[in-house]
């Protein structure tokens, strides 16, 4: 079941709040993209939901990872496993 617009809005706000937290600031000090494993400059790090909010994911520390802008843009609303499988198939 797809989360309601109100639920999605609430989760996005939680993510914004976590972005300001010491936990996130420490995580992005020497950030490496969760997906492509490339080092990301601190000012370019994006926050990605492993399970997207649109698919019922929550804004929790266990579901949020540092990500480079290109991987984040390509992944869109896929789960991490779906996106990684898609990448593997495309590299064949």
What does this protein structure show overall?
This protein has 92 residues and is mostly helical. It is built from 4 helices and 2 strands, in the order ααββαα. The protein has a two-stranded antiparallel sheet with strand order 1-2. The relative contact order is 0.18. The mean pLDDT is 94.
Counting DSSP E segments of at least 2 residues, the number of strands comes to: 2
Task: Provide the number of structural domains.
Answer: 1
From the spread of the alpha carbons, the general shape counts as flat
Task: Bin the helical content.
Answer: 40-55%
Radius of gyration: 13 Å
Name given to the CATH architecture: Orthogonal Bundle
Task: Walk me through the topology.
Blueprint (H helix, E strand, L loop, with lengths): L4 H15 L2 H6 L18 E4 L14 E4 L1 H7 L4 H11 L2
Antiparallel strand pairs: 1-2
